[in-house]
Amino acid sequence: MPMNLTPNAIAAINGGDVNSKPLVQVLDIKLIGSTQERYRFLISDSSSSQHAMLATQLNDRVKTGAVKKGSVVQLIDYICSTVQNRKIIVVLNMETILLDCEIIGNPKTFTESESTAQKAMPNGNLGHPMRVNNFSAPNSSTYSTPNSGTFRAPNPSTFNTGTFGGPNPSTFSSSNSGNFGGSNTSTYSGTFRTPNTSTFKSPNAGNDVQSFRPTVQPPYQPPPNYRNHGPILKNEAAARIIPIAALNPYQGRWAIKARVTAKGDLRRYNNARGDGKVFSFDLLDSDGGEIRVTCFNAVVDRFYDIIEVGKVYMISKGSLKPAQKNFNHLKNEWEIFLETTSTVDLCPDEDSSIPRQQFSFRPISDIENAENNSIFDVIGIVISVNPSVPILRKNGMETQRRILNLKDKSGRSIELTLWGEFCNKEGQKLQEMVDVGIFPVLAVKAGKVNEFSGKSIGTISSTQLFINPDFPEGRDLQEWFDRGGKNAASVSISKEIMAGGSKNEIRKTVSQIKDEGLGRSEKPDWVTVRAFISYIKSDTFCYTACPLMIGDRQCNKKVTRSGNRWQCDRCNQEFEECDYRYLLQAQIQDPTGVTWVTAFQESGEEIMGCSAKELYSLKYELQDEMRFGEIIRSRIFNQYLFKLKIKEELYGDEQRVKITVIKSEQLNYSSESRYLLDLISKSRK
Question: Which family does the record assign (predicted)?
Fold first, then answer.
C-alpha cells in the first residue's frame, strides 16, 4: 500500500518539535551496549535520515518483531538531545503503522545546516535557499531575486561608497528593487565579510548604492528589530508531565506526577568524605510506572518532612542514574536523585487515576525455587505469630524480631520475619488477633527471600504490610480459608518451628557444645540451652564505658581515669561521668555438663534484674556487701533459656571457643511443657 511519511520530520524534531507525532521509516536497527541492552535506529522521513535511540522499555518491540527494518512507525513521545556534541533523537514511545515496507524516497544523512535552515524559514520549505537579512545566498557566487532567477557577478569592480564588514556598521536600505530575495524593507546592521574580492552588483541599484563584498553563506542572525533589546529571558514554562516509564537521562526538562507508595527511614553513614545522611522513597504514577527517589544531606533537610506515604506530588529537576539493583527492587532501570534545584510540590487535589499501591502477587509455592535475596509480593493467611524477641545486630545495635507463618491456596506455608518497628506495630496487632482466634489476611509488599535453613521471607526498609486489605485477592483468599482452607494440608518451605519456639531455634545440651565442636567453623553457631546458673564471678562484673554518642549510637569503649576525669582513647575526649556496662562471667550447667559464658549489657540486666551502675554503686560506693551478696545469690540455681552465640576466637596465640549470652529468659514452665509434649509427639511418628 502507498505510504507517505511526514515531510521534513527529521529537521522539525532537531528544531525542537515534540508534538507533531510524525510518521517515519526505520531503515536500520542495531543492538549496542555491553552492560545494558539498547537499540539504535536509523529513521527516515523520505528525504533525511538520522540515528535515534530506543528507550529500554521499548526493547521488547524489537525482540518480539513488532518493529523491524523497513517498518513505518509513528513517534508518539520523543525528544532530541545532544550527546557528545551530536544530536540524537530519543524515542520514548511509538506505534507501528506498517510492519513491512520498501524503502521510501532517497533519504540522505541529516546535517546541522538543514536544522538551521528549518528554524530560519517558518514555512519549513527546505527546497528554497535560506534567507539571511533580505539576501538569498545559496552559494558564494549566485544571488537569487524574486523574479529574475539567477544573477551572476560581472567582472570585478569597486564601489567606493562603503563596504560591509568595516569597523562601523553600514546601512543598506532596500525599498525598491535592491531587495534581494524578499519584498519587505529591512535594515542590515551586521558584519558581512568575504573570503574573496568578487564584487556583486544589484541589477537596479544605481550608482549610489552602497558597495559590499560577497561572502559564503553566514550563520542565521535574527532580524534587526529583535536586536539590542537586552538578554533573552530564560524559558520558565512548566516542564511537560511525562510518564515515569518515559524518563531517561537524555531529557533536559521533565516533570512527573506520582503517588508516594513507600518511604524509607533516615539513615546516617560515614565514609572517606565524612558523615552524611540519606533517605529514599518510591513513586507510582497513573500508568503503573514505578521509580525510586533518593536524597542526600542538604536535600534530605528540604524534603524528608514533606514526603508522606499516600500523597501525590509533582516532581521535577532531578538527575537520573542507573538503579542499584542490590538495594532497589522496583522494575525500573533508573533512579532519581534530587538536587538543591529540584522541586517537589504537593498536589492538593486527590488524583483517583493514580493507584495507592501496585502488587505483583506470587503464590508461596513460587518462593520455594526463588533465588536468595530476591524480592516478592506475597499474600496469605496468618496462621501463627510468635512473640517479639530482641536481637543483637553485627554492629552492636539491638533490634526486635518477630516470626509468623503464612499459608495460601498453593498448598505451601512460609515463615515471615518481621524486623524493627514492624514487630511492635503490625506484628503486635497480628498477635492479638491470632490469640483470640482470628486469622487475618496479610499482604506483603516487597518481602526479601532468605534461604537460611529453608526458604523464608523477611521485611526490609521498603516493605509494606497490609492487614485484611480490601482488594479482590484478599477477599478471595479469605473466602477460601473460611470454606475449608483452614483445615487444608500445607507443607512448610521454611524450617519447622516447635510450639513455643522461635525461628531457627536449635536446642542443645551443655555437653553437645563441646562434643559437636560448635563454634569452630567460619560462621558462629547459634543455639538455645536450658540450664541453671551455678556461679557468677562477682569481682569483675562490669567495666567503665564511654557515654558519648557516635552518630546514632553510644561509643561504649572502655575508658580510663585521668585525674578527676574519664578519658576515651577512641573519641579522644574527657568527661566527668562515665557509664557502667555489664561484662558478666558466669557458669551455667545442666544434667550433662557445665561451661563458662559471658553476658554483656542487655543480657546481663536480664540475669541480674538491675543495671550495672546500680550494682557497682552498691558494692564500691555504698560498700553494702550484704545486699550485694543477696542479689548475686538470688540468681544462683535459677533456670533460664539461654540463647547463645558460639564462636572460636584467638586469644594471644591460643584458639578458644567463646560463648556469649545473646538473650536470657527465666524458664516459662507452660511454654516449655508444650515444647516437650510436641517433641514427644514427633518422636513417636
Answer: Belongs to the replication factor A protein 1 family.
